[in-house]
């Protein structure tokens, strides 16, 4: 992409109404625009990041054997009357009425709708296990939307739902989700710690939240620092293996880690003092096991092996896809701007032409841009008539992993400069060595 033709409305001024760094940087980098309290447009750069996050989530869900689908944002109220949550959900639910006076709502989550789909089509235990998910916009009329996309009213969520014959099978689904979530966050360069939490309006007793440690997080968390040494890394997981998933889930949930809702000071104080940590965290996901809470009242049963109908055991699992864009920035930035992890970066490389209009420099930039693009490396070429300093500032602000600096002085000795945004390390190399260096 040529920056001269792109839509990248960067702000020179720091927006003062934005209280946390990720919100400020998303506004300054031209990623989002607020349209109403807690409701945002995703401008081209932000939209690319959102799509990259979504892609990682899809890939890891499919790897775990879950099936993508899409449910609508608007839902009929009667499904929620069946489960009893229509009244229980309270003012966070945005209720609307259509022209025929039918009560509708903008979905804050989809347990009821997925249970309705299930009961209409699945009748036998042979069709289990089944996990369906979608990535769709949600609306929760939060009393205090704030921090940009972190606590929005309209937000993008991956939500999945498992259907199993009994509790043991559903617990496997729970463990499988825990492992796939750990993998998902690691690919985004995040350490998200599973913490025993409170289930709130979704229900059930078994639930873990995934928290990214950050001073600006909304939750207070207590943990044993031993947990921060744990990583899945390049381990490959067989998601059909109950024991393997259970062992990993156990490994990651054994060190003490709880949100303030479930914190137990007596247990916490038994951890050696040097490892006892209190911090703040951003909740980037949550998984639930709630048994037959929805299947029973809504009649989602299957015929068991003995021919008798049994209500299915269910759980649900959510990832805050739009919130993650902010969480990643909270975890990865410096004074000059964002530092994108490779897999979510909107472009991998930025080319800075320090002497726009100089024929040799322009030609070298064009050649590099063409070569990188042909090699499938997403590149943003800053070809604007701007001072070099302003171009560097923009590149630092938008945080692409690599910057190629091209100027007449280097070209005279046959080199350009390649700089890593995270380490700041720079190396000189011949322009035609760039593709293999970056591949
Ligand atoms: C699990 C999926 C649920 O809704 N039902 C379907 C369950 N869980 S949850 O914890 O309430 O939400 C899942 C994740 O969505 C993100 N999230 C938000 N992101 C931005 N703004 C909000 N207002 C907001 N509310 C929830 C969080 O990451 C949460 O973990």
Structure report:
The protein is of the alpha+beta class and 439 residues long. The protein folds into 2 domains: 8-338, BirA Bifunctional Protein, domain 2; 349-438, Rossmann fold (3-Layer(aba) Sandwich), CATH 3.40.50. Helix content is 31%, strand content 28%. Strands 3, 7, 8, 9, 10, 11, 12, 13 and 16 form a 9-stranded mixed β-sheet that branches. It has a 5-stranded mixed β-sheet with strand order 20-19-21-22-23, with helices on both faces. A 3-stranded antiparallel β-sheet has the order 4-6-5. Strand 5 and strand 6 (103-106) form a beta hairpin. The protein is globular, with a radius of gyration of 24 Å. The model has no long low-confidence stretch (mean pLDDT 97). It binds '5'-O-(N-(L-prolyl)-sulfamoyl)adenosine (P5A).
SSE blueprint:
Blueprint: H1 21-28, E1 32-36, E2 39-42, H2 44-63, E3 67-68, E4 74-76, H3 77-83, H4 85-88, E5 94-97, E6 103-106, H5 111-121, E7 130-139, E8 154-164, H6 167-187, E9 192-196, E10 206-213, E11 219-224, H7 242-253, E12 257-259, H8 265-268, E13 276-291, E14 301-303, E15 309-311, E16 313-320, H9 321-331, E17 333-334, E18 337-338, E19 349-353, H10 359-374, E20 379-382, H11 388-398, E21 402-406, H12 408-412, E22 416-420, E23 426-429, H13 434-438
The chain binds '5'-O-(N-(L-prolyl)-sulfamoyl)adenosine (P5A).
Residues 109, 140, 142, 151-152, 155, 157, 159, 202, 283-286, 288, 316-318, 320, 322-323 line the site of '5'-O-(N-(L-prolyl)-sulfamoyl)adenosine.
